[in-house]
Each structure stands twice: as C-alpha cells, then as structure tokens.
Amino acid sequence: MYGIATRVRHDAETEVTTLSRKIYFLVLLSCMALPTLCFATPLLTTPSFENVGPGQATLVLQSSGSGTGYFTLLAGNNATCGTGAQVAAGLDSSGTGAPYHGSLPLAATTTGRYTVRNLTQGTPYTACFAADSPSGSNLSPIPVSANLTTGTPATLLTPFWGAVGNAGFSADVASFISLAFAPDGTPYVAYSDYGNSGKATMMTFDGMGWGIVGNAGFSAGRAINISLAFAPDGTPYVAYCDLGNSNKATVMKYNNGVWSALGIAGFSPGAANFTSLAFAPDGAPCVAFKDGANSNKATVMKFDGTNWNIVGNAGFSAGQADYTSLAFAPDGAPCVAYKDAASSSKATMMKFDGTNWVTVGTAGFSAGQADYTSLDFAPDGTTYVVYEDSYNNSMATAMKFDGSNWVTVGSAGFSAGQAYFTSLAIAPDNTPYVVYEDKTNNTMATVMRFDGSNWVTVGSAGFSAGQALYTSIAFAPDGTPYVAYMDYGNGQKATVMNLAAVKATPVTTVISSANPSTFGQAITLTATLSPENASGTVTFLDGANSLGTSTLAGGIATCNTSALGAGNHSITAFYRGDSNYHASTSSSLAQTVNKGNSATTVNQDLNASIPGQSVTFTANVTSGATGVVTFTEGGTTLCPEVALNIGMASCSTSFLSVGSHTITAAYSGDVNHANSGGSVDHSVKSAATITLDAATLNTSYDGTAKTVTATTNPGGLGYLLTYNGNTTPPSAIGSYTVSALITDNNYLGNTTGILVIRDPAIPVIQTFTALPRANYLIADTTIVATDDVGVTGYCVTESTNSTDCTWSPSPTGSYTFATAGLKTLYAFARDAAGNVSPYFVTTLIVNSPILTVAVGGTGTGTVTTSPAGISCTNGVCTATFTGKVNLYATPSVLSNFVGWGEACNGLVDACSVTMNGPKTVTATFNAATLLHIGGTTYPTLQAAYEAATRGAVIQMLDNTTTGTLTAGKSITVTLKGGYDPSYTSITGTTALTGPIKIQQGKIEADKIVIR
Prior knowledge:
By secondary structure, the chain is mainly β. Helices cover about 0% and strands about 50% of the residues. Strands 42, 44, 45, 47, 48 and 49 form a six-stranded mixed β-sheet that branches.
C-alpha cells in the first residue's frame, strides 16, 4: 500500500519527501483521452490524470488556494469514489482501504504531481481526488478514470535534487570540500573549517543528521586542497596541504576515536598543492601533488606502513603540474592527470609502469588549456578525464582514452556555459557524471551525464540554493549520485544533495506490550512496517531520545526497555529506509509510566546503647531512588528530610532515654518511586562498668587453659568473656584479645584487654661448627639447638649482637666472608615467643682464593690485574685475591688480542671476576696479519686504509685475513690479495672474513674473496 506525502516547490514541480529524503520518478507516457472532470469544490481547479504508461501514471492536482490534496486509486473504469472524508482517509466508498492512496500539500496556482508505480498493465483504474482547506473543510471527491494500457515512448520527468539532512549543515564556512562513501554506504565530507581556523574537519550522515567525526579542526594548522578516501577496511583518511607544516603534504586517519598522522606530518619534500589521495590495490594510501621542492612538477608518494616513499622519481612530469588528480587503473597502476605547463597548460595523463612514469597517449591531449582536471576509471576500465576547457569558452569537456588516442566524449564544451570546479565520477553502470559550478545558472551547481550519445542534465540545471564552490561528486553503493559543495545559499556552509532512486514509503506503526507500565518494568516496543518486505533498521525514540535500534525481520522490529521514567512519554519508531523504501516515522504512542514501588529498611550501628551515647540509624531505599527520608521515634522527629545518597540516608542521635524505642524512617518518594517506610527497635540501658583482673592477664605457659576474671559495677552482674572471639580460654603461648560484655538485660557495659601467655624458657645451642672451604671465602656451618616449645629461627653472624641477625627458619648450612684471615663466628637460636639464646662462638682461618691466568696464542701480549698481583706475558701465572679483580690484555707490537676464556669471555681487552672462590682466566694473543702499501707494513686492514692515499694498492698475503674496513675517504683504493710472503708475486687469493662498509670513495678488489 502506498501512502507517500509530497510537498510543492516554488518552481511548480513536486518533490516527494519523507523526513529529509527526496525522491524522483521516471514516468512513461502514452497517449490517451481523458474524461471530463467535475469540480465539486473551488479549492481544486484542475485535477487530472496524465502521463499514463506501462504500469504507472502521474496524478496532477492544482489549487486556487492553500490546503491538502488527497487521492485514492480504485480498480475499474468509473469506480464509485468514496466521500471526501473517505478519500482523505485512503478508503473506497465501502470503507475498505484503497490499494493506492496518498496526499500532497497544495499552494495557490501551483501544480503538484505524484507518480504511482507498480500498476497492472491493461487494467483500468479510477482516480478519486479530494481537497480541503487549512481548516479541514470542503472535503469533496472529484473522480477521474483512465484505462492504463501499454505505452510506447519513455519520457524522463525532471528528477529533483534534495538535501541530505540539513542544507548548510556545517557549523561555519566550509571550503575545499571532498565527498566520499564508506564501504557501508555512509556519506562523509571533509573540508577546511573556517570556524576552526581553517583546520580540517570531517562530518558524516547517520540517516538522521550530520555529526562531527572525532573532533572538529583535527589538523595541526590550516588545511587546503583536501582529499578524502576510505581504506578497504573502512578507515577514513584525509590528505591535505598542511599550512601547519610548511605547506607540505600530511595524511591523517581516524581510528578508535582518534585522529593521527600517517607517518610524519608534512612528509613531502616541499610544499604540496593539489593533493589527491587514493588507495592502491594492496590497500596502501598514495598521494599525488604539485611538488614545490621539484619545480612544481608532479610527484606521487606511497606509505609502506612506516614511511612515505617516492613512487618512481620525484617531479616526474615534464613541467609544472596543476590540478593533479590521482586514480588507479584496473591493472593496479597509479595514474595522474593534470594541467601540464610543459604542454601549453593542456591536459596530460601519466602512468607508472613499475619502473618509470610514462605518458598515456599524447602529452597535452586537450584542445586548449585544461583547468580543474578530474580523472576516474569506469567499472569497464575506460579512462575518463574531465576539465574546464578554455578552448571551448571555459565550458566542460570530457575525454576518454581508447587504447591509442584521446577522444572527446560527446561534444567538446558540452556544458551550457562556463564550468568551474569540475568533478567527475562514474556510475556503477559505466555512465560518466560531472558536477560543476554553472556560470550560466547563476554559478549554482549542475550535474550532467553522458547517455551514450549526448550530455544531458541530471535533474534541474543550477539546482543549488545559491552559488556552489568546491563541487564534489560521488556515488553511493546503490548507484545514487551525491554532490557536496560550499553553499553560498546557506552561509557558505557545507551542503550535500542526492538524487535518490524511486521508492515507496512504508506505513510504520508502534505499540507497547504494557501501557500503562510501572517504573523499572521492562516493556517491549514493537514497530510494524507495511509492506512487510521492507528491510533495514528501526530506531525507537522517546521524544528526541533514542531508546535503541533494531533490525527488521518480516516487517517487525522490537525494542526492550526499562529506562522510561515515570510520567507520560511520546514514543515513535523511525524507519531509516532501504534501497526500495523511504524512511518513515510512526505516529506517536502515548506511553504512561506509573511510579514504581519502593522498599525502605533501617539498620543501626548499635543494637543497644546507654543514655547520652550516640547511635546512628541508616535507611536503605530501593536502588536508584532519590529524595529525602525523615526519622522519627514515637511522635518525635529525630532527623527531618535527610537527602538520600546512593540510596542511603543516616540519622545520629544521643537523646534517647532508658527503655525500648522504635525508630521509623519514612521515605517521601521521588518522580519515579512511590513513598515507603521501615523501622527498627532499639534498647537504651543503664550504664555499667566491667574491669578485667590485671593479674590474670599476664601468665606463664604451663600447658593449662588460662582464664581471665572480671568485676562489675554495680557488682554481681553477669558477663561474657571471649578470647580472639572464642569463648574457650587459650592454653598456648601467645597474645589474645579478651572482650568482656555485661549480659544483664538492664545494663550495658563492655571492655577489652590483652591476655599474654609467656614462654618462660629460652633456646639452647647444643653444637655449632664452621669448617672453611679451601681457597674459598666460605665456611660450611652446622647448628643444633633445642627449646621446650620449638626453635623457630637460626642466625650465624660475625657480630656478638643478635639484633644484627638475619634470621632463617632452618640452619643456613654456610657462611660467606668478605675477606680472608682469622675469623670469629657467632650462632644464635630463637623461639616463637621471641626468646633468643646466648651466642655460641667458634674461630677459623679463611684463605684467599687463587686466580690463575693463562696466556696463549700465536702472538704475544701481557695480562695485568687491578689490584696488582699478576703481570703475565706467557704461560701460567697465579696470585691470591678477594673481592672484585679487573684484568687487562695488552697485545705486543704486531699481535692482536683475540679473546678471553674460562671465567672471562668476550673480545674486548678488559674483564672482571669476583673472587669468592678459585678462578681461572685464559687470554689469547695472535700474530697480526701484515699488509703492505709500497713496502710499508700495517697490522690491520683499517690501519692500512687510513694510511692510504688516492690510488693506493693495499697488498695482502695469500691467506685468510680477519678484520673490518670502514671506508670514509673520497679516494679510490685497491685491495689486492694472494701475495707470497715476499710480496713479489701472486700465488692465490686472500679471504676477508670481516665486513666492508663504504661511506665515501671507492674500493676496488682484486684476488679478494669476501666471506
């Protein structure tokens, strides 16, 4: 069933709308005779039924005044129309719903049109019209019938461009606008935001309105030449000329709620104008720009995941390149079209073949100067370029590459007048579309497409509200063209308009599972769409607040909520639309939510008190409740209107008299909760004291239970004693908290004390031995100690004071000394009560460890120590040391130190060992390889190079040479190997095992093998 409301535009054409969506209709025309019309009311002057075609017809209403026009479409010729009220309600004369019905607003002398589709061809229909005034009077039907037969020629009625969301949706002036679609079909625009110092801002349309993506003005400085594109994973990227970074190129991406620079900000070699962003087939972002660091020629750079790299060579164009436009060919190659200063400012396109940038066709292929060049590839692979054509009076021209030559698409200069800010996009059906600022139409926006033979206007020429600058066109995934521009008709702010496909508007209704409901009660809201094949999502709204969004299934979507506050709510269901249906909003549902019940409980910090003692009563009210609680006792108010804090309110008082009291807490309720109350009983008793007998609080361990005694005042009162919470008196050594509580019902009193059961005995060390290890600063120890309740700690120390001990739960087994010599050790033992034994002493002699140094190898050298003690030139040397010892290896002339062994390791000429036992260190010295330059000998390759002059030859023996070379001089040096020991003849080759690094100059190798 159809029920689409329409509204009339000032240009006497109809624009069908649901919320902010605009649609247009394709109408097929067939010739037919229309019956005479009857006018039962003066409001409708020329209702008619025209453009009858196969399966469709256009209903036309015209009015002499304002009001609303209604229609029903009934099957059959001259079917009986219902009353005016029935027509307005979409009913036939029997009160049954008409298969087709609708309405549209009327204005004086203005024609409104509505196209009905999906009619059965060859079936006659009767159209019934009615109208009323703004006051709702003068409803009267006016029947018209026609036989809808198969028509022949097709006529395209003028489609209508409509704003997506609000026209002029940006907060301030928006320039350098770029439009693109996310993979999910959501439109985005990026622009230079005047309200944020010209920095870059991006906004997106969520189906209901435009919102900021991340933060407004996310770039470091002013951003111009903005280009927006989406990565294959749906991440938005924005490239721009970054005035905050010396006018260089910057690319930023939005991910996880944050804008961040890709690589470094300002990554281009110099100033980057006419930045154009596109993604390579491998998903890597690429940017083309006019490169200020390379004579303003074209440069393309690609991001490798870490850095931006030049594609091919920087400044690859023959001359200055303006209006650079980047796109990727079907074979994955990057292509750039631009205004080519080296070809009389005509259009040129170049392509990167994997090695070089090559011209596609002829350089400067346009007839004259080409401004605002825009490049795109059709789905079938055809290359298109559009531009402002100075050769054709600055009108728009499009050209395509046929594989050999550039050919004009349609007519050169196809626009009606001068065309600025030309922007090209290819529809999914391979049709090229161009948007531009149309000088002939008051500099408003115009879109044209190529129908295979001619360029035709899409919708109305000059459709924008005012002058349109920075025009940008893109296609939604469903093939709908969208246009973004700087809208002078709306304060120079950003506007996006689209040309949507023909759609029907479903009827949306919403019901509640419980109405009225109670606060906190979960209810189910159900939205039903007719027809039921509508797909997509429905958002449930409480006024302007979203309750949730659900996906349709069989025309039904549900929302479960318990978030409605008490009171009256206006619930609506907003359907967002799909490829076949417009968005629609249900009539409002009046949902009543009654207050929820509350529950109040009262707690007290003391179950009983004495006169004058402060007692705190706490009321706990149902979670989420707000408001106040009043505390009373009998008829006396203790604490009036105490505000709830996280559901709790407290009242403290010390004015209760001896006796029993009932404390009541009364909760007054709030906007969502009903009032409630609770109470607790409290007893006030006479004060009494209880004193613990000090003599029974300190006693010695003898294995029996130790009971504490107490006295009361008044005397003779009963009481209860607990020891660490237990009523059984303890017998073990230790400390216990004793709590005493008077149990007489008429008195209240308590006290606490500490019961100590002491250990009267101390540990005794039976034996203690300490045996030194040979050549180690370590003694192996044994301790045997006894105690009547058990030893819990052992200590061996060189101090006579046990306070210096580091205690261990078991004997340690060894002791390490800092130095050698005659030593005295003391042993202590400790029990659980902290009793420490007298020390047990023993003496011993500890010898210093021996350090052995062995020198070997084919060369010679010396190993010395610090502290002094060893200076070893060959063989084996020994000395005793304690603590840390540093060793140093010094090679002799024509020898190299090649490494340490045993307790030391590594190739550096110094090492250290800690002498807590005997240690052995080996040092190896090898004879240095001799190299010659003109008879002079050098010990290393690096030393020979440093002495070399331009053209020098470094002669090397026929053997393997170990060493590295870093060449850092601007000279040429030859390495020549394979010499015999006399350096008079070459007998083989020389193998180099070290790396060679050339920083400057040149190294030539002859008879050299580098491993």
